[in-house]
Amino acid sequence: MDDILTMIRRQLRVKLTDQDAIRKFVPLQSATAIGLAADERLLGFNIPPLLKQSYIEIGNGGFGPGYGLIGMTSGAPDDTGKTAPEIYYQLRSGHPTDPAWKWPECLLPICHWGCAIYSCIACDKPDFPIRIFDPNVHDHRVTWSDAFFEEATSFDAWISAWADGVDLWEKSYGVDGAIAIILAQREKLI
Question: Model's pTM, two decimal places?
Answer without folding.
Answer: 0.93
